[in-house]
Design goal:
It is built from four helices and twelve strands; from the N terminus they run E-H-E-H-E-E-H-E-E-E-E-E-H-E-E-E. It is an alpha/beta fold. It has one domain: Chitobiase, domain 2, CATH 3.30.379.
Length: about 210
């Protein structure tokens, strides 16, 4: 049930008749009103990592040199482009700082990969040769993933995981990675986006469940 109301004051009491006891109430669900959003009110996405003042990259330490190379090269490029020195690079087994994180490499090479998507709960499950996202499975050596979830311990931060089913799949996406900052997840096949979507924000200050 959607109800449109005319508001002409900063604070205004409104009475709304409903046919039955409501289950929840959400104000401005489609973001029609211009308002400032808390970071937790925005769907998780790579751009929340980009715009954070505290950022760290977790690079892989497992697998072969060839399997790690695309991710180490990407981390090196990020640091070189970081004019304000806000990015630190850490090994995947290092203590995880209270910052927004970019985790590079899948579970075969980066031991932080499964942890990285734990903030998305059952919406994401990593598999040996791919991942399941919102009930849809994707797998194969030509597939790559960019998945952002709320930080498991710091909900005002973000954790983004990037990895490919093979080094070549990762390379095809890595060079243009930050052009894809507006969705919670993207799935690539041979470097082309084949699926994308947004997860619900961690917080909605204008929704009440009764």
């Amino acid at each position: 049930m959607v109800i449109w109301l005319r508001l002409d004051a900063a604070e205004q009491a409104v009475t709304v008749p409903v046919p039955a006891r409501p289950v929840s109430l959400e104000i401005d669900p489609n973001f029609d009103a211009f308002r400032r959003l808390d970071r937790r009110e925005i769907s998780p996405m790579l751009n929340l990592f980009v715009t954070d003042t505290q950022r760290s990259v977790l690079v892989p330490t497992h697998g072969t040199d060839a399997e790690r190379l695309p991710y180490l090269e990407l981390a090196k490029r990020l640091v070189a482009q970081d004019e304000h020195n806000t990015i630190s690079v850490k090994a995947d087994d290092a203590a995880r700082p209270p910052a927004s994180l970019l985790v590079l490499g899948g579970p075969d090479v980066n031991q932080a990969a499964d942890w990285a998507v734990s903030g998305c709960h059952d919406q994401v499950a990593l598999k040996k040769d791919g991942a399941a996202i919102e009930g849809h499975s994707y797998h194969g050596p030509n597939v790559a993933f960019l998945i952002s979830c709320p930080h498991p311990e710091h909900p005002d931060r973000i954790v983004t995981l990037f990895y490919g089913g093979s080094p070549s799949a990762a390379v095809k996406v890595a060079r243009l990675l930050f052009f894809y900052g507006w969705q919670s997840y993207l799935v690539f096949q041979d470097g082309t986006v084949v699926a994308r979507g947004n997860f619900s924000p961690a917080k909605n200050g204008l929704k009440v469940t009764f």
